[in-house]
Write a structure and sequence with these properties.
The structure is a single chain. The protein is an alpha+beta fold. The strands form 4 sheets. Strands 1, 2, 8, 9, 10, 11, 12, 14 and 17 form a 9-stranded mixed sheet that branches. Strands 7-16-15-18-13 form a 5-stranded antiparallel sheet. A 4-stranded antiparallel sheet has the order 3-4-6-5, sandwiched between helices. The two termini are 39 Å apart. It is 19% helix and 28% strand. The protein is built from 10 helices and 21 strands.
Length: 410
């Protein structure tokens, strides 16, 4: 069991260096924390991902304590394990009275082992109350009535119902394709929305300037397992990851997150997101900046850490990107395929994948099933030598009939 404690927003920058041969990269330190959480892809590409909590806010004091959880079985486990959709898994309408809540005892998360991937399941075990869990995770839960002798019960994520979000529309029609190049019908969309031209050119430049300054003052080297010097990243975050002696970002994280400490241009981005209509958002959890320096960037399929809250926003700056979504069930059925980069480059992870095209200065949001039951990733690019000997790299969008070229300054 892995005890998670933190939730966040993320900004990521990907910079171009000399071309390198694509490598398989696995592990949670890779880029799945916004890591990016969200993500990024490309060459000199900047991505911002913002994680916020749900609408219902609990206020309680307490601390985190990790606690080992024994394995569980029984009816509660069978219900959660068999759930293929979170659309109807809703928390009780009444808010818990948490005025006298003490510190939480901890959370035991369950992970799905799919080849070399470890993906968190949408349920977990804890003795804590719904109010304590909301404080820790930023999302409501549906709790089992069965309690063991240690007071531990099973809980399942209960994010906001899809009907609370704006309807899918033309932006999603233009941005989402299946692996045959067809538009995704609205009833097949797991919870992905796109906001095009979210920032102006002037706003984008202001954010990029702040990111460069932040990297110089607070960034530390962030290298995923198996990566070499060409693929190093710089990371800025407000939470203590025990990875550097450099100062933490001043805005901190979680319940201690202080928006006033976020630089002006980034703070303006947060404000624009908070003012969006059709998104039931709660408080911001964190901001993280990631700068990646690699020509062949890829982000392996992952589900963001459970504590990141039910709403994630990813903003693409300085370039566009293609983000690929895969249902966990399909990944499980294609273990050998999803662990073979050569196959993934040409055919994607599964035949059920959905590609999301995110143009420059645009943003995508994911929630519900897309947040908890689907992975998101950026496939490694295909490359070739041009007539003048220059290396060209491409990502497919749906099929190879539509491609996005990765350029030097992206």
């Amino acid at each position: 069991f892995i005890v998670q404690k933190h939730c966040r927003i993320h900004f990521a920058v990907v910079m171009a260096v000399k071309p390198v041969r694509p490598r398989r990269r696995f592990g949670r330190r890779e880029v799945p924390l916004l890591v990016l959480q969200f993500a990024a892809a490309g060459v000199l590409a900047t991505f911002a991902a913002i994680t916020v909590a749900g609408t219902s806010a609990f206020v309680c004091s307490g601390r985190w304590a990790s606690r080992g959880m024994p394995s569980r079985s029984g009816a509660a486990g069978r219900v959660a394990a068999s759930a293929l959709s979170l659309d109807e898994v809703q928390a009780p309408s009444e808010a818990a009275d948490d005025s006298d809540e003490g510190p939480g005892r901890g959370i035991g998360f369950i992970h799905d082992a799919i080849g070399e991937y470890a993906l968190p399941k949408p349920y977990f075990y804890s003795p804590d109350s719904a109010a304590q869990l909301y404080r820790a995770l930023g999302v409501n839960v549906r709790s089992s009535e069965e309690v063991d002798e240690d007071g531990i019960r099973q809980h399942m994520f209960a994010p906001q119902h899809p009907s609370l979000y704006r309807p899918f529309g033309p932006m999603e029609d233009a941005s989402l394709l299946d692996m045959e190049g067809q538009q995704i019908p609205h009833d097949r969309n797991p919870g992905i929305r796109v906001e095009r031209d979210f920032l102006s050119e002037e706003e984008e430049e202001a954010v990029l300037k702040e990111l460069r300054e932040l990297a110089n003052s607070h960034g530390y080297d962030f290298v995923a397992p198996g990566e070499q010097g060409e693929a190093m990243s710089a990371r800025i975050t407000g939470r203590d990851e025990k990875s550097s002696d450099l100062p933490l970002a001043p805005w901190r994280w979680g319940l201690d997150f202080d928006k006033a400490k976020v630089p002006p241009a980034l703070r303006q981005v947060i404000g624009k997101i908070e003012s969006l209509k059709g998104y039931p958002l709660g408080p911001i959890r964190d901001v993280t900046v990631n700068i990646r320096q690699t020509m062949d960037y890829q982000m392996v399929p992952h589900i963001d850490p459970p504590g990141d809250g039910p709403n994630s926003f990813v903003l693409s700056l300085a370039s566009g990107a293609v983000v690929t979504w895969s249902p966990v069930r399909a990944l499980r059925e294609n273990i050998e395929r999803v662990n073979d980069d050569d196959v993934v480059v040409m055919d994607s992870y599964t035949d059920e994948d959905i590609d999301c095209l995110v143009p420059r200065r645009s943003m995508y949001h994911f929630s519900g099933n897309a947040r908890y039951l689907w992975t998101h990733a950026v496939r490694p690019p295909a490359s070739r030598k041009s007539d003048d000997g220059e290396l060209e790299t491409y990502e497919r969008f749906g099929t190879w009939d539509k491609v996005l070229r990765r350029r030097e300054h992206r």
